[in-house]
Amino acid sequence: MSNPGSLRIAAISDIHYGKSSAGSMTQLFSQIADTADILLICGDLTDYGLVEEGRVLASDLQSFKIPTVAVLGNHDLESGQEAELTEVLSRAGVRMLDGDTFEYRGVGFAGIRGFCGGFGRGALGPWGERVIKDFVNEAVQEALKLESALQKLQTQHKVVLMHYAPIRETVEGEPLEIFPFLGSSRLEDPLSRFQVTAVFHGHAHKGAPEGKTQSGIPVFNVAHAVLKHSYPDRPPFRVFEVQTNDGAEPGVTPIVDRRQYGRRSSDRVEGMSQ
Ligand SMILES: [Fe+2]
Ligand SMILES: [Fe+2]
């Protein structure tokens, strides 16, 4: 657990629970509970968005002892059962965010699913066919949801979780042809406007683990496959420490628990610049 005056945030994504996934992540969940104060899950909680899959995950989270905050991903919408899925996970104690906020020990969290459409000058514009306008509008609506969620938070630190990527940098590693389907720059504007402390997302399974918005906000891709590939000697979750002391500089520090990762056992926590 963290020191008073700081909060340890664990983040994972794209766990893609299926009907036969029972128990597959319980060891990971217990490592997370031993290390962090709160867990963020950034979407693709299930493989096909089936309530049955959600029940399997809910059961594995039953004995999880720290607060859990999650957003849905595109896979969670595949079967049109997202409302029931949200209900099943909420009943299991998971705070499901969809343009909503959650505050814990002085840190504010805002969550959306997000959407795609591409990045920077390559972003799709709302022009021409109705279907293109609707497609672009989905990303605009998600950005507006994020903006109104962030508006509600009065905390010094605001942490955002979303499924899709808000910047190009953390999808790099994926085939260039699919970049437009991995996220949208439209999700970046509210992050800068509200001077968010850090952003966590998933979806780009072959993306890069870290990047920054144009205004310098750290962005972390915590997709399960990305973490396994980028940090093969560690369990596939990341932990960040946020200083919650009044007047502390806003920021997050990625940390590694040496004991957990089998390194020196004298110090529990090592500050790392990665
Ligand atoms: Fe995924
Ligand atoms: Fe996804």
The total count of strands amounts to 13
Helix-residue proportion: 10-25%
Order of adjacent strands in the largest pleated sheet: 4-3-2-1-11-12-13
Number of helices: 6
Backbone shape: globular
How do the strands and helices of this protein lay out in sequence?
Elements: E1 6-12, H1 26-35, E2 38-42, H2 51-60, E3 68-71, H3 82-91, E4 94-96, E5 100-104, E6 107-112, H4 130-152, E7 157-162, H5 188-193, E8 198-201, E9 210-212, E10 218-221, H6 224-230, E11 238-243, E12 252-257, E13 269-271
Parallel strand pairs: 1-2, 2-3, 3-4, 6-7, 7-8, 8-10
Antiparallel strand pairs: 1-11, 5-6, 9-10, 11-12, 12-13
The structure holds fe (ii) ion (FE2) (2 copies).
Residues 44, 73-75, 163, 203 line the site of one fe (ii) ion (FE2).
Could you walk me through the main structural features you see in this protein, from its secondary elements to its overall organization?
With 274 residues, the protein is of the alpha/beta class. The protein is 24% helix and 23% strand. It has helices spanning 26-35, 51-60, 82-91, 130-152, 188-193, 224-230, and strands spanning 6-12, 38-42, 68-71, 94-96, 100-104, 107-112, 157-162, 198-201, 210-212, 218-221, 238-243, 252-257, 269-271. The chain has a seven-stranded mixed β-sheet. Helix 2 (51-60) packs parallel to helix 3 (82-91). The radius of gyration is 18 Å and the shape is globular. It binds fe (ii) ion (2 copies).
